[in-house]
Amino acid sequence: MHIFIPLCEKGGIEIIKRYSDEERDLSVDIRLVSMVFENVISNAIKYSFGGGRIEISSKSFSEGLQIDVKDYGCGIPESQGKRIFEKLFRTDNARVIDQDGTGLGLYIVKLILDQVHGRIWFESEEGKGSTFHILIPSDMRQQKGTKRLE
Questions:
Q1: Are the beta carbons of 87 and 104 closer than 8 angstroms?
Q2: Which residue from 48, 88, 126, 142 could staple onto 103, CB 3.0 to 4.6 Å apart?
Q3: HSE-up of 44 (CA within 13 Å, CB side)?
Q4: Contacts (Cβ under 8 Å, ≥6 apart) of 147
Q5: pLDDT per residue as tens, the chain (150 positions)
Q6: Domain limits of the chain?
């Protein structure tokens, strides 16, 4: 979480962590899991209103670990929600807030999770914020290969 300190300080954003007390052994590829959370959390910070907060919580299930990242920012317009995981897609309100975004972050997150049999979905209301739910399977293995997403 320390990598987000400068972004949070700049925007006056507070991160509140509410993790489950239940411990669970997971076999994960730490590089891929880090990329998933870095993208989702940085989006939550970027699209939050100044002085807001982001809540990160966890729940353990037999099939894995669910992490929820909730912000109280600009939200996703209902008419554009179906496209949120498309390559290079950015919502209209996101382009106004951050003109430098690429539209690749959530696309990459979805690709990673699909590859490891995980899942991502969201709930959102424009102007009120979004919650992204991420399910990391308990048997995710380190991915082998020569191509990297770094």
A1: yes
A2: 88
A3: 29
A4: none
A5: 688 888 888 889 999 998 876 666 777 888 898 999 999 999 999 899 888 899 999 998 888 889 999 999 999 999 999 999 999 998 988 888 877 888 899 999 999 999 999 999 999 999 999 999 999 988 776 556 555 555
A6: 11-137
Residue the block writes with tokens 């590829």: 29
**Is the separation of the CB atoms in 143 and 122 below 8 Å?**
no
The domain 11-137 is placed in CATH, from the list 2.60.40.1930, 3.40.50.2000, 3.30.565.10, 3.30.200.210, at: 3.30.565.10
Residue 133 has which token pair? 């739910």
| Size of the chain, expressed as the number of residues it contains | 150
